[in-house]
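Exercise 7. Predict the joint structure of the components listed below.
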Amino acid sequence: MIAIQISAATLIEILLNGLQQGAIYALLGIGLTIILGTMNFLNLAHGALYLLGGYVGMLFIRENRLTAGFLFDSGFTSVGLDLGFAAALVLVPIAMFGVGVLMERYIAEPFYERPETDQLLVTFGLALIVQELVKATIGGNTFQPAAPSEILGVTVGGPIMLPIVGNYPQWRLYLVAIALVVIGLTYMIIERTDFGLIVQAGTIDSEMVQLLGIKINRSYSLVFALGAALAGFAGLIGISFQTVSPQIGTEQALIPAFLVLVVGGAGSVIGAIVGGFILGITIAGMTVLDPQWSQIVLYAVAAAVLLFRPQGLLGTAKVDA
Amino acid sequence: MSDDERPQDEPESLRTDGAGVGGEASPGPAGAQESLTLLLRDLRNHEFAVIGAAALALVVFPYLLIDGLGALGSLIGFRIGGYEGLASLVLIYGIIVVGFNLLLGYTELLSFGHAAFFGAAAYTAGLLSSTAEISPPFTEASMTMPGIGSPLVMLTAGTLVAVLLAWPIGILSIRRSGVYFAVLTLTFGQMLYFFALGPGAGITNGDNGFADVNVEPLLGVFDLGAELPVVTTVEYLFVGVLFLLALTVANRIINSPYGLILKALGENEQRVAFVGLNVFRYKLMAFIISGAFAGLGGALFIMHEQYIHPTTALYWIQSGDFVIMTVLGGTGSLIAPVFGAFMFEYVSNVISGVTLPVIGRIGSLWRLILGAVFVIIIWNAPRGIYGGLVDLKRALLVGLRRLVWASQHPQKASEALRGWAALRGRRVLAIADRLPGRGGPGGER
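Solution:
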């Protein structure tokens, strides 16, 4: 390809953009990987959770003008609670936690003992249903990103003057910070709490955990809900700087989440974080260098990892070759 | 998942049946029935009969689809009749899913990347027939496409490209199994999609879609759009013959020792390896064969539609549609996925145009309906629509036989009915007991 001179400013911008995208990927990947690791359950509806998180967040944050869909047909011209971004930061994970509990109980649980192909297929069908339901109720049109201008009195909108780079949207820095805090918290939960210990043990040998007298059913529920909350949170972060449409679940979340999973290694939280940032920075870099090839390179990285290091960069789970 | 894995309540229905008949059945008709069953089984195992029946069904199919459903529709007040092109489209997808089922249903490999072969073949066939200037990436050069519009050449080229593509993708993907196989196939498919959309836009016309398709008459004589007596159009006849061909090939594969090994692979890969067979080679061949079917379908698709876009040709949702069709119809039986293809295309093209009293026009809700049906089928009826049809036929036959018997012995019939109802009642109660989620007695995983 053509060699391109990269200035320091571009490099830092790539890094910043990569951190944003990477944080979203990491949040998605952590959820997917703990669900897969603990319950051996493959969730193709993970993108649907991202989608739900994004839309629920959008409804919490502001009034949204409707132009189509069931609600519009029944006379609503706008929908939303207009609570602001700070409220959404708290409420979205809580709401998605609930969704996760329900989903674990009524969708995932009946499929734990079934072949993984069945799990893939049923969650794939579910993903379609969620996407179409959202489209049918709120309409298939694109909404503008819901970037906040201030949170709890602190101005977060507008540009900020950075050294070297120059003007940069201030919100994106906050976004990276918030996402990193959430990722850090999740990491701490998994690494430093009893619950995390059970989850970790469960990824290695769930039967043994059960034999030790630990109610793994409850942990399953919590793990799934945690994964859903993280995916929903990723959706909230995503819609704060990207446009919102019912396709975001399958186009922007599901496939990247799976790529993170294979790059980082199934069942490894730290792997998901590393994988997320690797892919995020890869795509941010390629977008600057040669946007046409960015997606292709992203997939190529994932394919290369799968072929040469099937357990993932940091994974320990055995992969039947 | 094969036919001999009967539903669980089968023995019971036999029992109630047997209890009623109580050895009183005269040997005469039973013997005749048995020989008839044997004859039917012989027929079913005979390739000529299978293909002949399929051919007959193909002749009737457009009439049922257009006139039959149309008449039914006007009876109930909805426009649910099909249209002419739909019959061909169903058969085109039928070819693809029959091949896809060799992989998913028999070898039990779930690929989420078959759109790659479908789309690559479609673009190949389309480009071959076009006279457009194309400019491949990395070069400044441009070239003019030859404009070979002969349908047979287009098909051959498309299928060949699909095979040549399935070969390396298969070699790489089959090294992993389960979800990793699915992700790898998806990855390669998506790479091709983004290539067609971005860097390869000089060849594929990118996001604008490729429309410069010039299909010449078949063998230089028969225009594909021309009307024919009995079988509607030349195109339908052409697609139908190819469909039969694909069905024959698939039937031969399944019933050959080779096909048995594919089936065995689906059931227990390790044992196949223990027998000393080269697992990798067989899986690869299954992958390539199914890729070839997808390619044939793709080439036919572009002849039919005269237009292709990366999203309809190569996007992973298209691969997902193949999966949906196959599972809807039912895996593990030769013809079953075709029912899924029909259902999918019928719902997306016809039902989507129906206007319902309360909800209004179904429109894009069709995907929701299909998704729901899909989930229900995975959940409760892994044998798909076709399995349901087989069960229905069997139930009807059993019911008919019982009715005949009941009319002959009204006394015993009422007794048997009461016994049956009591049994059913107990079962319903038992199910109701277990209903609230995992909270049942000893509800552990």
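Discussion. The first strand of chain B starts at residue 133 and ends at 134.
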